[in-house]
What we know:
The strands form ten sheets. Strands 14, 15, 16, 18, 23 and 25 form a six-stranded antiparallel beta sheet that branches. Strands 1-32-3-28-29 form a five-stranded antiparallel beta sheet, with no helix packed on it. Strands 4, 5, 10, 11 and 27 form a five-stranded antiparallel beta sheet that branches. It is an alpha+beta fold. It contains twelve helices and 34 strands. Among the domains are: 38-71 and 458-542 and 598-623, no CATH class; 110-205, no CATH class.
Amino acid sequence: MSDFSIPGTGTDKYGTAKLIDGLMKVARVPRDRAEKDLKSLQDQRSVWLDFGQRMTTLRDSADTLYSYRNPFNDRIAKSSDESILTATATREALAQTRSIVVKKVAEADRFLSSEMPKDYRVSAGNYGFTVGGKSVDLNFQGGRLQEFADALTRKAQGLLRAEVIVVTPGTQSIVIESLKTGAANRLGFANDAVQFGLDTGLIAKIHTSLQNFDPTSPQGWTTAVDPNLVKVDQAPADLGLAAGSKILSIEAGTSPGEAKLSLQTPANTAGLVLELHYHLLPLGTPTAPTPPPGPDLKSVGSASYDGVTVNDAPSAAALPDWVPPPIPPRVEDKAMASVVGGDGTAAPLPQLQDGDGIQTLSVKLSDYLPDISALAFRVRDTTRRLEVVSARIYNPAETGGFKPLKPVSTAQDAVASIDGIDIQRPSNDITDAVPGVTLTLKTPSPNPVNLVVQPDRKAVKDAIIALVGNYNRLMAQINILSRTDDRIITEISYFTDEEKKAAKAHLGELQGDPTLSLLRSSMERIMMNPYPTSDGDQLALLAQIGVATDASKPGADSNFDITKMRGYLEIDENALNKALDDHFGAVKQLFGNDTEGNLIIDSGVAYSLDRLIKPYVEMGGIISLKTGTLDQQITGTKRTIADLDTQLASKQQNLKDKYGQMEGALNQMQSQSSAIDNFSKNGGQ
């Protein structure tokens, strides 16, 4: 039987498949060229997108150095002894140096019980605890001491904490502590907690040492009370006191205003604290006296007779020349308060402080006198009126008629002296004493701590280094894309192997593009130009703060290294550090400066870089236009490839059909030839 070939069955008797492949290879040349063009366009688009990202990164670095968020306005606070005091500063803080003495740190009540047996059980009941003005009520069903401590801690939710301590293998104690510092946040016991505290030795009953001074009952001190200078007034509304509250008002006249507030019972000062609440009201400038009007001499009228009227003559009185009284001298003296002992001895208290609202003075009385009978005031200050709101003495260890038997710590306010001015706060984190600075008190110490608030020079230095680094990265990319010398890549030491491989793939890819050469020259000009600063020619160039190309450094060798001529910048850290130390304000102006005084930056290296890069990377900018054009070309090329694929598929099918028909005809002719041969061999039978 003769061989028979059916097109598409996989047999290729006449080699038509090879012929078709050869013809299609020639036909695919335009399609292969288009695919190569597509890859080139896609590579260019990727390059421009990456280039745009590099430019955006450099622009962000430039913006950081002159915009409202620039690090030149950042501040840091340094403490000379961080074991005593630490601090943080915001951008609003002023550069300054303060001397601070930490006299007391704020603490919270922490009470320890007596030792109890390991099997001690807490009875069921309603256990009440208070911290300042807040309370906790625990309905406990009874149970072990540890169960009680756990239940109280959960119920208090950050207000209280209870902890059981194993003292010996057979005994335990409980510690109950307030989680709020400050003298006002005393730990108190109520309901069944009172008996629990007494039973466990947490607290004991006492006779309270609290005594209040009555500001509405002033008495004479060294002189009798002058009602013109010492008055009991209604409390001003701006003090925030309850309606109808009264205060003691004392001011100076031609003589000091004096008053004394006596205790009902003189007290020994051991363990006692005096707490005075007051307000200093600034007084206006006194008005100049005017001459007295003199006697009022009334007219006696007139007389008329027979049509004739006679008026009286005006009366006159001879007055002496008026001599105005002398203007009282201006006196400022805020040492207004003293404590008085039982024998009449007086000890002055610290100066009172100005401030909005009610101020508080708190002192340990044993530092002044062994006993106290009164609180006295003498106001010499002619610019302020003293308003006494309230005053009391008390033992800070006492709480609600009880005192802790084993106080681990006692609630107290933090007290610090800032440049000789005492402040008192309930927390160790003080945010309102130095504007823009948060003080954190660690431990009391008699030694002053120097607090220095200064610009964050490290943040500025890091931002400048980041700018230079991003500038060099962009310059390296320009060099790689615009040149074909592979030394450009090997010179860059910070490139990883993958980055070197990618750089080689794009070496010279945009050679001849005018955008790159124009950008390069503009960037170099910006980095070399002088800019106006407050230090004039002494600091007007980047090179003067240690940022320059190797070739532009003073005294550089005339034999330039080609690798140093690529436009990259280098940093002399010593020169940069010195410039930031000695010319901080001018360095700031070097990167961004308002030369017209309209609060708008209009000069500087960072400002100029930002202005240069903006039209490249903004929406609708140069990079966007280039990638947009490439997108259109890519879309068109893809469409061309799709059309060519359709044409090639049609052509290939057409060739298969034609060669299939040819094979069929040849097979038929071969079959007929075989039949004739067979007929001839059989003698025509």
